[in-house]
Design brief:
This protein is α/β, with parallel strands linked by helices. Helix content is 35%, strand content 17%.
C-alpha cells in the first residue's frame, strides 16, 4: 500500500481528526445495525492507548442544510457503549467555539462533531471548509472506506492541509480487496447478482476479464438469459441492454455460470406459490424470483474448488422466504469453506450483508465490507478519490 497508516505517525498528545461513516441504518431513531460503529474499534482503541484527542467527523443522511432530525447527537450513547468511553458532542463542525472546546478536552478524549453535510462546503470539496476542518487537529485519519469514493472536503480536501493516514478499518478493507483482485490466489470466483445489469455494468465488464469464473444471479441473470434467446416470461429484465449483455458473454475470458433452473411464481410475497422449472421452460405468464437447486449445486461445486471468492448481491429475492433458500444456502457453503481454510472470501454491499446475517454467517467470511458504492467502484477497477488523496499525501512523508 502506498499510504501511511496509524503505525507511521506518533499520536501521543496529538489531536486526530478521524473521518468515520456513521451513516448507519436507523429505525425509530435507534441504530438497527451497528456494524460500521463496531468496525471503528481497532482505530479508536489504538488512538486512546496513545493518549490522543479523538475528533470524530461524519455525515448522516442527505440534508440540504442544518436539520435537527439528522443531527448526529443521538448516536452518542451507541458510540459510548461500543467504545466503552465517554463521548462528548459539539453541535458544530468548525469555528472558534469548536476549537475552544477541543483545546479544553483532555488526553485522551473522544468528541463527536455535528453532521458534515449541514455545511455546503463538504460535498463541494470547498478548500475553505477543508482548511477550517484541518485547523481543528494535528493529524487526519480516514477510517471511512465506504465514503472514499466521494471527493468531498472531509475525504479529499482535508488531506492537503494535514499529515494524513489510513485507519485500521480502511487499511484492512484495502488489504483484503487487494488480495482479491490484484494478487489473488486462483481459481478466483466472483458472484455478482442484483436486480439490474445497468447498475453493475462496469463491474461485470471488469470482472469478466479478471476472474476465472463469474457467477451471475438475481434479476440481472434474466437479462443474460434473454440475451441468449431464452424466453424469461414476465421476469424482470432489461431489454435495452441485451446487446451489451451479448457483448459481455462473447468477450469474457472467464467461465460464466448462469441459472439452469429457477424458482417461478405469480407474485413476490411471503405466501407465494412456487414452482421450479428449467430456464428453457419458463411460462410466459410467470416470473423467476430465485435460482433453482440444480444451479445452486453447480455454484457450490464451483466454490469448493475456488481459492478466492468475491460476492456482491443476493442471487434471489431473499427478502421473501419462498425465494431466500438459494442465497442462504450459498452463504452457508461459502462460510464453511472459509472456516476450513479452503478459500479467502470477501463480500460487500448492503443486501449481501443482509443475506449473510439471515444465514447466521456474517462473521465467518474472511472479510465483510460495510461499504456500498466504494466497494463496487473498487471492484470496477476505479481509483477512489479518498484513497488516492492518502497516497498523494503519504508518499512525501515516508
Amino acid at each position: 500500500m502506498k499510504f501511511l497508516t496509524l503505525d507511521d505517525i506518533e499520536f501521543a498528545h496529538k489531536t486526530a481528526l478521524v473521518r468515520v461513516d456513521l451513516n448507519v441504518p436507523v429505525k425509530d431513531r435507534k441504530v438497527s445495525d451497528d456494524s460500521r460503529i463496531q468496525s471503528l474499534l481497532p482505530t479508536i482503541s489504538h488512538l486512546l492507548s496513545k493518549k490522543t484527542k479523538i475528533v470524530l467527523i461524519s455525515h448522516f443522511g442527505r440534508p440540504s442544510g442544518p436539520d435537527a432530525s439528522l443531527s448526529l447527537k443521538f448516536l452518542v450513547p451507541d458510540l459510548e457503549k461500543a467504545f466503552d468511553f465517554k463521548v462528548d458532542f459539539i453541535a458544530e463542525c468548525i469555528g472558534d467555539a469548536v476549537k475552544k472546546s477541543l483545546k479544553e478536552a483532555p488526553y485522551p478524549s473522544i468528541t463527536l462533531l455535528e453532521n458534515l453535510r449541514f455545511y455546503e462546503g463538504e460535498e463541494k470539496n470547498d478548500p475553505l471548509f477543508s482548511k477550517d476542518l484541518a485547523d481543528l487537529a494535528d493529524i487526519y485519519v480516514n477510517d471511512a472506506f465506504s465514503c472514499s469514493h466521494r471527493a468531498h472536503a472531509s475525504v479529499v480536501g482535508i488531506t492537503k492541509y494535514l499529515p494524513s493516514v489510513a485507519g485500521r478499518s480502511l487499511q484492512s478493507e484495502l488489504v483484503h480487496l487487494e488480495q482479491c483482485l490484484a494478487t489473488p490466489k486462483h481459481p478466483l470466483v466472483a458472484i455478482v447478482a442484483g436486480s439490474k445489469i445497468s447498475t453493475k455494468l462496469e463491474l461485470l465488464e471488469n470482472l469478466c476479464q479478471k476472474v476465472d469464473t463469474l457467477i451471475i444471479g438475481g434479476a440481472m441473470a434474466n437479462t443474460m438469459l434473454a440475451a441468449k434467446g431464452l424466453d424469461v416470461g414476465q421476469s424482470l429484465y432489461e431489454p435495452n441492454l441485451l446487446d451489451i449483455a451479448r457483448k459481455i458473454l462473447k468477450n469474457t475470458t472467464a467461465t460464466i455460470i448462469l441459472p439452469e433452473d429457477v424458482v417461478i411464481s405469480d407474485e413476490l410475497s411471503e405466501t407465494a406459490s412456487t414452482q421450479i422449472v428449467n430456464v428453457h421452460d419458463i411460462p410466459k405468464d410467470k416470473k423467476a424470483f430465485d435460482i433453482g437447486p440444480k444451479t445452486v449445486k453447480k455454484i457450490k461445486d464451483t466454490l469448493k474448488n475456488a481459492k478466492t471468492v468475491v460476492w456482491n448481491g443476493p442471487v434471489g429475492a431473499f427478502e421473501f422466504a419462498p425465494f431466500a433458500e438459494a442465497s442462504i444456502s450459498i452463504a452457508k457453503t461459502l462460510a464453511d469453506l472459509t472456516q476450513q481454510n479452503q478459500c479467502m472470501s470477501v463480500a460487500g454491499g448492503g443486501d449481501t450483508l443482509a443475506v449473510l446475517a439471515l444465514a447466521g454467517v456474517k462473521d465467518k467470511l474472511s472479510y465483510v465490507s460495510t461499504a456500498g458504492g466504494a466497494f463496487l467502484e473498487w471492484l470496477e477497477g476505479k481509483t477512489l478519490p479518498g484513497v488516492e488523496a492518502l497516497e498523494q499525501n503519504g508518499l512525501p512523508l515516508l
